[in-house]
């Protein structure tokens, strides 16, 4: 069954005897740096194969790892943003396993003592009946560790071989291990989205899941609430946030199905197949892997200093990583941005949520507000509804919007000062979108959509209409009723309504214009 | 040894040892040591002082069998697992004996009392880990690297598809028997 049609799994009205899902995430975030974790070769995507590979990355004998300071700073920044405790001393280890894209036969990671521990990620998603209420949740972060990425394998099943590209081998990763505090795909997707926004705001990871900069593995199990956790499976190969929710929900349902049929869930690794929307078992792992963890003998412990005062003498200040300095330099985090927008512009939390969720939308909104005298409350709808829906239709980003903030501000000013009605304004906006570059004024003039507010002129127009349809006027007289009302007619066909023009009906004038277009 | 025979030969020629020493004194790394330190009969031409922490005679005591914990038994399953992890075949009689001896040798560590002592995992533990600047200084040597393996495909290294699963234990035993022939 498709996720959309089935009831959401995060319903708080689940009956007490129902199995619930338990989800823990392991996230690998590629550090946004010029060079790799332990070597001075470049970090890049889509470069010619094996062109960004140093001798260390190729595991040639005689090479030694040299730690990149930027990667340490990135890990500390991320740890601070997620309220972690930063370990002043952390250690590096080797994790051994054989695979062609891991030329050394081991990966340097931080298994015993990672750089940051015990943090918390606060995230929200739109819940409630109408899915427009902001629901706040938290998930505990067990640890953040620095580790190496592996190369890329391209499987050529036809010729029964695997092609190895080591450009990615040795790139710095931050592995974030989350506690199993989530219960369904929607929560996991929301948590990952928030993490993406935080990492992008910090600049420590660009968070592009399709380019592999952010990789998520989900540990999924089911149990009766209150009872011990069930056997978990690991779901891999999730390439987008959209698939993450589907993969997790499918797996939860699959496990519930297995247990309801009296079976047992196997502890295994499963891959998500986006075509079928199912998880399938991966190649058998031949029992539990023994990674033979050992300390990395070529790297002494990594020390980061609490503050400038704790720098020992003789240590170069530019060499050292000082936590307090990094904390002071942290940029504004998404949750702070959301609160600031609500405070500054008196908009609703859900609007603020939508603004921060879309790349560049906050800047767009603030630019429009600056250029118009309108209340931000009255601007927000235009940005989160009109603008955003058109962007979504064409799958465009804010930076690709054919209507600039100034152009939108001009349109809103024209509406505010009574030049056009609100329904016309929406029409004009659509037209501006279609013919990019045209200002609101141009469109209004071209299509003569402006409101006429001069009473004398309106009287003249009404008189002309009445004069041009004498037969209907006489029919009207025989019926002896005249109605004077001010409602909008949206049907445009051959018969006309005659009103006694005792009021300035803006809509009537527009109607008259439409009629004149039809009848010539 | 050659030194001794030289001096004894010299002595037999009537030239005293004392006179010989100054001219044969070596300057090692610019370190000049005074004559008094070179008095040791065992190390006449060393310029380093004898560290008092090092005993003058060997103090090595062999560890007795009863001091060690009982010898570890290595079941066939464990041998199997070790072979898979290390990708080394050692199922021969010699291989297993070698493994047992290696474990026994390491068992001597149990004699040492490590209560309250932090394990040391790097002799570099008191050194500051050097942190490198984030500037590109290497890479861009695809041609050089691709010359190393026997075969490549369009600038990619070639590997067998996935991990070749190890044959089952019975098959492996059979394979080993054949290879021994």
How would you portray this structure in words?
Chain A has helices at 69-81, 185-202, 241-260, 323-328, 334-345, 349-357, 361-371, 376-393, 405-416, 422-434, 440-447, 455-468, 470-479, 506-519; strands at 20-30, 85-86, 89-90, 93-96, 106-109, 116-127, 133-148, 152-156, 161-165, 172-178, 214-223, 233-238, 269-273, 278-281, 294-295, 302-303. Chain A has 520 residues and is of the alpha+beta class. Chain A starts with 19 loop residues before the first strand and ends with a helix. Mean pLDDT of chain A is 84; it is low at 1-8 and 480-508. Chain A has a domain at 20-295. Chain A is built from 14 helices and 16 strands. The relative contact order of chain A is 0.10. In chain A, the strands form four sheets. Chain A has a nine-stranded mixed β-sheet with strand order 2-6-7-10-1-11-12-13-14. In chain A, strands 5-4-15 form a three-stranded antiparallel β-sheet, with no helix packed on it. Chain A has a two-stranded antiparallel ribbon with strand order 3-16. Chain B contains six helices and two strands; from the N terminus they run H-H-H-H-H-E-E-H. A two-stranded antiparallel sheet of chain B has the order 1-2. The longest helix of chain B has 15 residues, at 93-107. Chain B is flat and about 65 Å long. The chains are: A alpha+beta (520), B mainly alpha (181). The interface between A and B is large, with 56 and 40 residues.
List the helices and strands and how they pair.
The complex is a heterodimer of chains A (520) and B (181).
Chain A: E1 20-30, H1 69-81, E2 85-86, E3 89-90, E4 93-96, E5 106-109, E6 116-127, E7 133-148, E8 152-156, E9 161-165, E10 172-178, H2 185-202, E11 214-223, E12 233-238, H3 241-260, E13 269-273, E14 278-281, E15 294-295, E16 302-303, H4 323-328, H5 334-345, H6 349-357, H7 361-371, H8 376-393, H9 405-416, H10 422-434, H11 440-447, H12 455-468, H13 470-479, H14 506-519
Parallel strand pairs in A: 12-13
Antiparallel strand pairs in A: 1-10, 1-11, 2-6, 3-16, 4-5, 4-15, 6-7, 7-10, 8-9, 11-12, 13-14
Helix pairs in contact in A: 2-3, 5-6, 7-8, 7-9, 9-10
Chain B: H1 2-12, H2 17-24, H3 76-86, H4 93-107, H5 142-146, E1 152-153, E2 156-159, H6 169-180
Antiparallel strand pairs in B: 1-2
């Amino acid at each position: 069954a498709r996720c959309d049609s089935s009831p959401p799994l995060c319903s708080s009205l689940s009956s007490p005897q129902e199995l619930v899902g338990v989800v823990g995430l392991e996230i690998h975030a590629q550090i946004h740096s010029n060079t790799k974790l332990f070597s001075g070769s470049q970090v890049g995507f889509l470069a010619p194969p094996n062109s960004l590979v140093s001798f260390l990355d190729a595991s040639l004998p005689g090479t030694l790892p040299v730690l990149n300071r930027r990667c340490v700073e990135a890990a500390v920044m991320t740890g601070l943003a997620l309220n972690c405790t930063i370990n002043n001393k952390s250690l590096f280890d080797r994790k051994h396993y054989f695979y062609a894209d891991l030329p050394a036969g081991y990966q340097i990671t931080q298994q015993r003592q990672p750089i940051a521990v015990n943090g918390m990620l606060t995230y929200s998603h739109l819940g409630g009946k109408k899915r427009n209420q902001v629901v706040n949740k938290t998930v505990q972060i067990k640890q953040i560790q620095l580790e190496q990425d592996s190369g890329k394998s391209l499987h050529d099943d036809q010729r029964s071989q695997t092609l190895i590209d080591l450009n990615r081998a040795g790139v710095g990763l931050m592995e974030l291990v989350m506690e199993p505090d989530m219960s369904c795909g929607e929560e996991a997707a929301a948590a990952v989205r928030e993490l993406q926004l935080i990492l992008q705001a910090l600049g420590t990871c660009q968070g592009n899941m399709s380019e592999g900069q952010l990789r998520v593995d989900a540990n999924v199990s089911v149990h009766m609430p209150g009872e011990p956790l069930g056997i978990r499976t690991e779901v891999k190969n999730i390439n987008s946030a959209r698939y993450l929710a589907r993969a997790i929900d499918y797996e939860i349902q699959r496990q519930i199905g297995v247990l309801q049929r009296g079976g047992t869930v196997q502890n295994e690794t499963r891959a998500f197949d986006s075509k079928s929307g199912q998880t399938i078992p991966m190649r058998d792992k031949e029992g539990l892997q023994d990674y033979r963890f050992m300390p990395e003998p070529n790297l002494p412990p990594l020390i980061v200093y609490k503050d400038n005062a704790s720098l020992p003498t003789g240590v170069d200040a530019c060499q050292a990583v000082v936590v307090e300095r990094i904390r002071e330099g942290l940029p504004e985090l998404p949750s702070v941005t959301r609160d600031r927008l609500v405070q500054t512009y008196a908009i609703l939390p859900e609007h603020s949520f939508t603004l921060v969720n879309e790349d560049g939308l906050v800047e767009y909104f603030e630019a429009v507000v600056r250029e118009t005298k309108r209340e931000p409350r009255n601007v927000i709808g235009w940005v989160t509804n009109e603008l955003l829906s058109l962007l979504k239709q064409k799958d465009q980003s804010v930076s690709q919007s054919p209507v600039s903030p100034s152009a939108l501000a001009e349109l809103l000013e024209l509406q505010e000062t009574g030049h056009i009605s609100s329904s016309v304004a929406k029409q004009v906006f659509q037209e501006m979108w279609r013919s990019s570059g045209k200002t609101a004024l141009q469109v209004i003039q071209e299509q003569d959509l402006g409101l006429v507010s001069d009473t004398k002129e309106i009287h003249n127009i009404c008189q002309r209409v009445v004069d041009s349809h004498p037969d209907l006027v006489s029919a009207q007289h025989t019926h002896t009723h005249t109605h004077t009302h001010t409602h909008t007619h949206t049907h445009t066909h051959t018969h006309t309504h005659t009103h006694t023009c005792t009021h300035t009906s803006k809509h009537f004038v527009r109607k008259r214009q439409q009629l004149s277009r039809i009848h010539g | 040894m050659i030194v001794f025979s030289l001096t004894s030969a010299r002595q037999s020629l009537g030239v005293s040892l004392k006179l010989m020493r100054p001219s044969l004194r070596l300057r090692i790394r610019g370190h000049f040591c005074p004559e008094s330190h070179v008095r040791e009969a065992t190390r006449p031409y060393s310029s380093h002082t004898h560290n008092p922490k090092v005993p003058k005679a060997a103090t090595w005591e062999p560890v007795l069998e009863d001091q060690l914990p009982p010898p570890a038994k290595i079941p066939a399953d464990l041998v199997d697992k070790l072979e898979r992890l290390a990708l080394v075949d050692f199922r021969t009689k010699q291989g297993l004996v070698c493994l047992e001896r290696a474990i026994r040798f390491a068992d001597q560590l149990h004699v040492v009392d490590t209560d309250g002592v932090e394990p040391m995992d790097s002799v570099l533990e008191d050194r500051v880990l050097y942190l490198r600047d984030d500037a590109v200084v290497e890479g861009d040597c695809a041609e050089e690297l691709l010359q190393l393996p026997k075969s490549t495909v369009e600038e990619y290294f070639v590997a067998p598809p996935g991990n070749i699963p190890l044959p089952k234990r019975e098959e492996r035993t059979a394979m080993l028997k054949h290879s021994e022939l």
